[in-house]
Amino acid sequence: MKKIDKLVLGSFWGPFFLTLGVVIFIFLMRLLMFYIDDFVTKDLDLYTFGRLLFYFALLTIPTALPLAVLLSSLMTFGNLGEFFELTAMKSAGISLTRAMRPLLIVAIGISAFSFWFNNSVSPWANLKGYSLLYDIKTAKATLNLKEGIFYNDLPGYSIKVDHKIKAPKGSSNGDLLKGLVIYKHPTSGIESGNREIILADSGRMFMDKDRTYLTFQLFNGNDYQEYNDNTTYSYVGSGTAAKGAQFMRNGFKDYRLVISMESFGIKRTDENQFEYHEYMKNLSELRTLTDSLRKDYSKTSLNVAGTSRQYYNYQFKADAVLRQKVVKDGKWVDSLLKKRSVPSPDLMQMALSQAQNILSYSTSNVTYLTEKEKNVWKYQLETHHKFTQAVSVFVMFLIGASMGAIIKKGGFGLPVLVSIVFFIFLYVLTLQGDKYAKDGLVWVPFGAWLANIVLFPVGLFLMQRARHDSRLFDKDVYIIAFERLKRRINQWKNRPVSQSVAS
Q: Can you tell me whether residue 250 is helix, strand or coil?
């Protein structure tokens, strides 16, 4: 490796890893903003939260790689141009393409890594990350009693407190509660309604060390219960009977109510339930499923065409007529056309009913077949994205290296602004292409490759301008051109009248 290669690579890797880390951090913050309520209200331990962030950090790497390559290559050649190192290289007979050669090899290697990552690591990270996120979202929130409001998340209980005093940290006495009302709802049997209510002046609430049981220690209260017995009685003047009821009141000074916390916490769902999604499949699995879905769509279409014949009572068969090469006498055709028989009302009603049935049948089947075809498009689109995200890394390198050599500015100022503009352009084109492809408005490969199709010529154009030392982004060029234009306009206005008349 020559010194010039070491110089270029040494200037590249620092901004690359820094940008990659910043982009991953930004995407993780976006995840936290979307699901902040689920993360705050659920009792997540650090291990579970760390696993979730790890999985989604892996998912953001394919998206972050194009921006990291774009910014780092732009900063690398911007710094070389700003400190006249590119000028020194050219004066020594080293062309720009020769200076870009080490980064070109690196960009191809990063593109190959991006393809391997998308095909092998991303499906696994998608499955693990989204299944864990689903379990967190479906888990019940941690116990949070609010003053004056009934809390109903404990199965079989409705609890209200008038006043709550939280215990100091490290205290084992639990929170102090005043004015408790606890309804116990039946969870089995044929009983309905509130059969038991507990009223207490005060109490304490705490959990055991394993957080598996919640204990309420109640003071100075009463337990009211209603029981149905098997006795019957008859109303006077009627033969009906009804069940009787018993009411019981138990007073207490110190009463402990223990409630299981089994329904709280995260319960892992079988990951096989999420494997159907296209993001959880590698390239070979996507191709197999796409072929299966295509065959299923074709088979369903043929079945719909065959089943629709049952809605027709009469069919016109022209084969026998077409086989006759010569029609000797056409008067029988004219007589059929002139004959106008009035159909019966029953026949007209039957025809209308059949027409409505075939219309409903056709509409429902068109919707059904469209959804099946959209599933094929989704899997096709994800198959192409295994390649498009890898190619976009190379496209961003072309744009970044060329822009850096043209603008000759390093640091985190102008390069960051230019990189963000091009990355947003890439992101928007990718989203629009995906939307059009999923809706069937464009051919799926065209929608998947739309961003690269648009930006690759831009990269080639910028590369051609950079090789010829174009001052494309130099404001002095545009100022001079504008001044020249103004002078020409003034000269045309101030030309002699004789010349204007002659013209």
A: strand
**C-alpha radius of gyration, the chain, whole number:** 38
pTM: 0.70
Which amino acid type is present at position 173?
Answer: N
Task: Read off the pLDDT of residues 430-453 as tens digits, 9 standing for 90 and up.
Answer: 999 999 998 888 999 999 999 999
**Token pair of 262 as six digits:** 């089994």
What is the C-alpha separation between 346 and 142, in angstroms, rounded?
67
Give the whole-angstrom CA distance, residue 296 versus residue 293.
Answer: 5
DSSP string, 368-383: HHHHHHHHHHHHHHHH
In sign, the C-alpha dihedral spanning 140, 141, 142, 148 is negative
**Do 399 and 459 touch, CB atoms closer than 8 A?**
yes
Contact in structure between 418 and 403 (CB atoms under 8 Å): yes
C-alpha torsion 94→99→102→107, nearest 10: -150
What lies within 8 Å, CB to CB, of 14 at 6+ separation is 72
Supply 311's token pair.
């809605």
Confirm if 19 and 71 have CB atoms less than 8 A apart.
yes
Give the integer Cα–Cα distance in Å for 311 and 319.
22
Q: 443 near 436, Cβ under 8 Å?
A: no
Q: Which residues pair with 228 in a beta bridge?
A: 245
